[in-house]
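Field reference: sequence -> structure
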Amino acid sequence: MLDEDTNKKKKFIFKRDPRNIKYIWFYDDILREYFKINVADQNMPNMTLWEYELIKKQLHKDGTKQINTAQIIDAHEELHRQIEDSTKKTKKARRLKQRLKNKDDEISTAEEAPIAKPSPTTSYVDETIWDDDIPDFD
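Structure field:
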């Protein structure tokens, strides 16, 4: 398609949202509006540009020369599984740490608590038993 003004090939604007690369956006300069276009493979999950770059880097690091969509999908699922496992472990560790902290707080609070002293108005009865108070059963 030629540009009517310059008689050169017309350039079109395509943009990608880094928060979800499953779609690209095409700008129609006549309508002055963007249109959402699905990527070629509909099996591709919603994924951020950051995730995609991380997955590609990991696959290359693992020795993969040519990356296909199936590998990307599998790696994406594995990444999210690892994130979920880490989150669970982190939550569990945080709860355990909090429990230990609460236990330590209870112990230190008990140690710091003042010992109750009798008030001056309280009277005590001496109930000490002496040997001569015990009856003789001989």
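Note: The helical segments are 49-61, 69-112.
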